[in-house]
Design a protein that fits this description.
The chain has helices spanning 12-23, 35-47, 64-76, 99-124, 148-168, 186-191, 203-215, and strands at 3-7, 27-32, 52-56, 81-84, 131-135, 174-180, 224-227. The protein has seven helices and seven strands. It is globular. The termini are far apart. It is an alpha/beta fold. It has a single domain (3-227), classed as Rossmann fold (3-Layer(aba) Sandwich), CATH 3.40.50. Helix 4 links the parallel strand 4 (81-84) and strand 5. Helices cover 44% and strands 15% of the residues. The chain has a seven-stranded parallel β-sheet, with helices on both faces. Bound molecules: NADP nicotinamide-adenine-dinucleotide phosphate. Residues 8-14, 32-34, 37, 58-60, 85-89, 108, 135, 137, 180, 182-183, 185-188 line the site of NADP nicotinamide-adenine-dinucleotide phosphate.
């Protein structure tokens, strides 16, 4: 049975992706720190007839990526999809950003996805339709004042994803970067309380992009999808 790993699945965008992939009959490995939230999603998925293993793990820790892949293989015997979605945002000017928060953002947003991909690729190579999707952000290619540490960690994620796409193309592994603007989750409510929530992208819209990417058959290669809220900055 095909299986998918989703990080940051305890709420927000990751939860929406989990429900979407469960509906597509993937067995799921769901990663986050909040056990209660993960347990609720697991029971929702099991009610839908799906299979689900929850892992309450901290992606800030060096050993977590290898542990996730070991658990995925132990439970489902294969990995077909890897979604690096977990993320931490932070708002402060460069002059007010200390090394601890910079390290946290880089460990969660850039280091963990890098080493999760590295650990999963040997198993993805054996899949019939292997896909890696890394969830970046509009700040992964633009620069907003007051978001330097968050933006640089997402630029790092984007840079690594570009290289990965080239290095595993010959293995048939499709690698995609999704860069959303404001999505209606707790993260944006904390980072941008000024934005009217009614104009934000809904988490399910990101899950729909994931569904499109994992189900499409075309020959063309999609590297990057940028989705923005209506009054967000147009692509230039
Ligand atoms: N919301 C937006 O406007 C927006 C825009 C662009 C990009 N994004 C990106 O989309 C992704 C999902 O964001 P979201 O809006 O859904 O945020 P969210 O509601 O704050 O959810 C973040 C998820 O990441 C997990 N996470 C955070 N730190 C973790 C850690 N140390 N170890 C394990 N899991 C951790 C959280 O799980 P626990 O709390 O259970 O640990 C949670 O499931 C992020 O990468 C974010 O940067 C969001």
């Amino acid at each position: 049975m095909k299986s998918a790993i989703i990080t940051g699945a305890s709420k927000g965008i990751g939860k929406a992706i989990a429900l979407k992939l469960a509906a597509l009959s993937y067995s799921l490995v769901l990663v986050g720190r909040n056990k209660e939230h993960l347990a609720k999603i697991k029971s929702e998925i099991e009610k839908m007839g799906g299979r689900c293993k929850i892992l309450s793990l901290d992606l800030e820790k060096e050993e977590t990526p290898d542990l996730i892949v070991e658990e995925a293989i132990a439970h489902f015997g294969q990995i077909d999809i890897l979604i690096n979605n977990a993320g931490l945002a932070h708002s402060s000017k460069i002059m007010d950003t200390d090394i601890d928060i910079w390290n946290r953002l880089f460990h969660i947003n850039a280091r963990a996805p890098f080493f999760l991909c590295k650990a999963a690729v040997p198993f993805l190579r054996k899949s019939k339709n292997p896909v890696i999707i890394n969830i970046s952000s509009v700040v992964g290619f633009k620069g907003y004042a007051g978001q330097a540490a968050y933006a640089s960690s997402k630029h790092a994620l984007a840079g690594f994803t570009k290289v990965l796409a080239k290095e595993v193309q010959e293995d048939g592994i499709k690698v995609h970067l999704i860069s959303p603007g404001g999505v209606n989750t707790e993260m944006v409510q904390k980072m941008r309380p000024d934005i009217d929530t009614s104009e934000l992208i809904q988490p399910d819209e990101i899950a729909e992009l994931v569904e499109f990417l994992v189900t499409r058959q075309g020959k063309g290669i999609i590297d990057h999808l940028y989705i923005r809220r209506q009054s967000g900055q147009a692509f230039d």
